[in-house]
């Protein structure tokens, strides 16, 4: 049995890898997506990997996940620190939610130390770059296997 999982990425994630000396590393968003798709297939997950720069689109996708996904992995990016609508949508989702951040948000600016997404998340992975995305998928697979 494969489990459908929505992997949602927020603003500017599509720019990963374009700033080689930047906070988010040198790997492109497309490369990270391909690696996640490959891993998901080996874990028995059907991955729907998406990115938007718009809060309302992310809310729509979270609501869509209520009917079409068993779990959500989300890097809401900058919206993590400001979006009550994303929090409210996540709170209405019944499955596991893993919050991810490429950087260690607690080593960055103070405003990044509080994430609204964390209030709804089953767990949080931060500071491990693209490896954190893979760990999030592994965690989701384990959590879904425990409830099957």
UniProtKB/TrEMBL annotation:
User: What Gene3D superfamilies does this protein map onto?
Assistant: Dehydroquinase, class II
**EC class of this enzyme?**
lyase
- One family from Pfam that matches here is DHquinase_II
Q: Name one GO molecular function term.
A: 3-dehydroquinate dehydratase activity
Question: Which pathway is recorded for this entry?
Answer: Metabolic intermediate biosynthesis; chorismate biosynthesis; chorismate from D-erythrose 4-phosphate and phosphoenolpyruvate: step 3/7
- Active site residues according to the UniProt entry: 24, 101
Q: What does this protein do?
A: Catalyzes a trans-dehydration via an enolate intermediate.
Q: What family is it from?
A: Belongs to the type-II 3-dehydroquinase family.
Q: How does it assemble?
A: Homododecamer.
Write down what this protein is called.
3-dehydroquinate dehydratase
Question: From which lineage does this chain's organism come?
Answer: Bacteria, Pseudomonadati, Pseudomonadota, Gammaproteobacteria, Pseudomonadales
